[in-house]
Amino acid sequence: MHPKHSGRREFLLAASVLLGTAMLPQTVLAMAAKPKIGFIGAGKIGGGLARLWATAGYQVMLSARDLGPVKELAAAIGPNAKVGTPAEAAAFGDVVVVTVPFSALPQIGKDYASALKGKIVLDTCNPVLKRDGDMAQAALDKGTGVVDPMLLPGTRLVRAFNTTGAGYLTPIAERTGPMFGVPLAADDQDALRVAAQLVRDAGFEPVIVGGLSTAQRFDLGHGVHGGMTAAEIRTVLGLP
């Protein structure tokens, strides 16, 4: 091919790639680089996930009202982890993981509404009757995927990791046997794709169940637990 024609072809190809990239949704573009992850709640689930993602190269911010123990946890995780207040974590994260007692969700949705608006939020919280009272029963009756958007309004919500106990959040290098599955439910398809990649980078296999209304199928007491493979979860839920 004539050098002039070759140069023109390369220019047109580059221009088409740039144009196509500019037209992609922002969440898809964000997937090209690892999104920052803020944690509201730094218990066993939050701390375990933060360690896995920090090891995988993500920048994470852990938060709690008492920052003393959280600073120790972040120091143990390494240089990709930092600490802040819940408000700072909500502002920091491109993705925000909410991992607190279910009864705390209404206040979180109120206090951090502005910071969380439009963001991908992974909700790991489970309603527990003895701990969370009447609101837990209402959530179990209606389904967490139906109730959660009312508690965390304006967010791009994904139900994730609510079946995964802290005992399964061990470092990937220490695990043996088959990869465990993590069921996911969301109405926002871009948020779902980001969540699925985060699940993979944490060393699990995502199982896409459906929209938020389908999250009730893997709520507590519906037969799905953290020690199940993706194939086993699909069998229990009747998924292809």
SSE order and pairing:
Blueprint: H1 3-22, H2 26-30, E1 37-40, H3 44-55, E2 60-63, H4 67-77, E3 81-84, H5 86-92, E4 95-98, H6 105-111, H7 113-116, E5 120-123, H8 129-132, H9 134-142, H10 144-151, E6 156-159, E7 181-186, H11 189-201, E8 205-210, H12 230-237
Parallel strand pairs: 1-2, 1-4, 2-3, 4-5, 5-6, 7-8
Antiparallel strand pairs: 6-7
Helix pairs in contact: 9-10
CATH hierarchy class name? Alpha Beta
Largest sheet data: 8 strands, mixed
Could you tell me the mean pLDDT?
Answer: 89
Unreliable stretches: 3-31
Total number of domains? 1
What's the number of extended β-strand segments? 8
User: What percent of residues are in strands?
Assistant: 15-25%
* CA-atom Rg in angstroms: 20 Å
Morphology = globular
Architecture per CATH nomenclature, i.e. the level-2 architecture: 3-Layer(aba) Sandwich
Structural class: alpha/beta
Please estimate the helix content. Answer: 40-55%
How many H/I helices?
A: 12
Q: Give the ordered list of helices and strands.
A: HHEHEHEHEHHEHHHEEHEH
CATH topology: Rossmann fold
- Give the termini separation: 49 Å
CATH H-level superfamily title: NAD(P)-binding Rossmann-like Domain
Strand order of the largest sheet: 3-2-1-4-5-6-7-8
What features would you describe in this structure?
An eight-stranded mixed sheet has the order 3-2-1-4-5-6-7-8, with helices on both faces. Strand 1 (37-40), helix 3 and strand 2 form a beta-alpha-beta unit. With 240 residues, the protein is an alpha/beta fold. The chain has helices at 3-22, 26-30, 44-55, 67-77, 86-92, 105-111, 113-116, 129-132, 134-142, 144-151, 189-201, 230-237; strands at residues 37-40, 60-63, 81-84, 95-98, 120-123, 156-159, 181-186, 205-210. It has a single domain (30-237), classed as Rossmann fold. The model is unreliable at 3-31 (pLDDT under 50). The protein is globular, with a radius of gyration of 20 Å. The chain is built from twelve helices and eight strands.
